[in-house]
Amino acid sequence: MNDTNLFSPSEYTAALLLYIRQHAERVHACRVLEMGTGSGVVMATLLALGAESAVGVDLEALAVQATQNLLTQEHLLTRASLVHGDMWEACGDARFDLVVTNLPQFAAEHIEYDGRLASWSAGGPDGRRHVDQFLKGLKHHLAPNGLAVMTHNVFLDVNKTQAMANSLGLQARVAYCASAPLPLQKLASLSPEVLSRFTGEGLHRVGEYWFVDFDLVEISWKHGEA
Ligand SMILES: C[S@@+](CC[C@H](N)C(=O)[O-])C[C@H]1O[C@@H](n2cnc3c(N)ncnc32)[C@H](O)[C@@H]1O
Fold this sequence. Notes:
single chain, alpha/beta, Rossmann fold, eight-stranded mixed sheet, 9 helices, 8 strands, binds S-adenosylmethionine
């Protein structure tokens, strides 16, 4: 396995890419941020669609390197800033017109999957560890008319995200629903409680195959709150 395969994008990222392409007007000439760049495919798409500037943050040094390699290969590095760091600590006081993210959000602490680190996809027992951290910091980094778009799997409970956004002066809405195959290795990392709670309610088994539902959630300021 080489470094490119190591960061192979998921179905979640593919859905985010589709959203970005379908809303290119929200990218063009805008200041954009991707939290958790991984392979760099989202950053590359944002820049190719004409973002004025794009900041990419990742906790994993190898992911920052993979993103830099991809942007260099695609001749897109000039408007990009890549930061190796932990979430919002890496963003200073900057505000962004568009923030996109596919954070680690699988409802497990330890995941043995495809040679990836737990920080690639594990979100703690309810999946929300990084999502809550993201939401808390978002209000300090979203421009007044800005928009954040995040992948959001079923474990996270969209009602919790909406309640949290509301308490922060933000609003969250589901913009897109999808389902992705769930590899058995990842399935095995779910606790019996999570498995029984979500089977048939966002986790679906068909024969030996499993699928997990996820959404794309848009977050913006509530009217008058920016
Ligand atoms: C599910 S992957 C998605 C990556 C990318 N969208 C892709 O598919 O190529 C999540 C990414 O978030 C990064 N990450 C995890 N925790 C982070 C944190 N606290 N701050 C910044 N990045 C983080 C991981 O290293 C990983 O690259």
